[in-house]
Amino acid sequence: MGLPRIARTTWRHSFSVDSSARFVTPTHPGQLGLLPGTHPENECRNFSSLRSRIFTVTNWKQVSVDKPRDAFHHRAVSVTTQCHYHAAGAAAAPPPQMANLIDSDAEVDIGRLPGLEPTKPGEKPRVVVLGTGWAACRFLKGLDTKIYDVVCISPRNHMVFTPLLASTCVGTLEFRSVAEPVSRIQPALSGAPNSYFYLASCMGVDTDKHEVYCEATPNAGLHSDPYLFKVAYDKLVIAAGADPLTFNIKGVSEHALFLREVNHAQEIRKKLLLNLMLSENPGISEEERKRLLHCVVIGGGPTGVEFSGELSDFIMRDVRQRYSHVKDYIRVTLIEANEILSSFDVGLRQYATNHLTRSGVHLVQGVVKEVRPDKILLSDGTDIPYGLLVWSTGVGPSQFVKSLDLPKAPGGRWRKGKASICQSYSGR
């Protein structure tokens, strides 16, 4: 489709980056979320994991260290590589949202956590930004670092140009073409003496103490368990992203692939090519070959339509030449409960429908009832076998956003105005 060339030009102009920059590609999707991939949980961490991780502590009592711990100091920030303490004395209370996320038999001394202390008189105010998505990076790029110090906290160290992810799934673009390091968007993060980027997930915010509490990103090569640290702020910008909407349909999280991060595109690309190669092996039944080569996309929004179009182009231009033995078996089905691109103009919807139909995409109107490892069950009783399933039905508020005691709309999203996702939340 024509979007990649236009979007690439817009990408370069909007962030003024050098398109020749090269990045390291993870060797497998489960690797650490550094450029250009990211951990599948990325910005939207499940906070129940905190119950079984990091600390073995009780009742938020004051704690003390029974022996010295090895620590490293990086640009005036003291961080311990392992934070297991033993009980002693009276306690500092946790922020309300974190108190609900940690077992009642756990203890953590919030006051003793390592990290950045409040700014002192005469120092520049500190702006803490949570996230490295569109809103966060646009804010970071426009921030005047002569007036403010900036700290960015995110489980990924880059921004993803999401409209082009569909092209990376089929090799039209490489993964390094759709990711940009956050330190190139805001150079102060790597050069200014009191500005930092922290590879971590925010676990809670205390708006009274003006502190955020973070967990170091897991699977980051640490020899110890991930640890907690805190960062004091003068102004806080929350732009921590959203979670894919699954509507609590059984089997979606276990069996479907999403398309929101670079590692998601890597998984889709790997699965697609694996199915193509397996389908040529002798001994596979006709029915199994058809299942392996059936690609199903759930959701007729912009992402679902764009991916379906890229996939059909890939089949027409590459699969029919390189996998000639199975070229007549591969097919694409797009399932949508209503009309595709329902939020767009009628003319655009009709154009997209005609284009996909001519490209060989089978459009099905239906509601998914359950997803199983090898087939989808629709509400009308229809079974649809699949080899690749991509789920793209929109996004909703993340668990982190839900946990914050800040004004939100009934659906859990931010209200427009003072608590907008790209507004600063003032501290001192």
UniProtKB/TrEMBL annotation:
This enzyme's EC code(s): 1.6.5.9
Oxidoreductase keyword on record: yes
Keywords, comma-separated and alphabetical: Oxidoreductase
Top-level taxonomic group: Eukaryota
Protein name: NADH:ubiquinone reductase (Non-electrogenic) protein
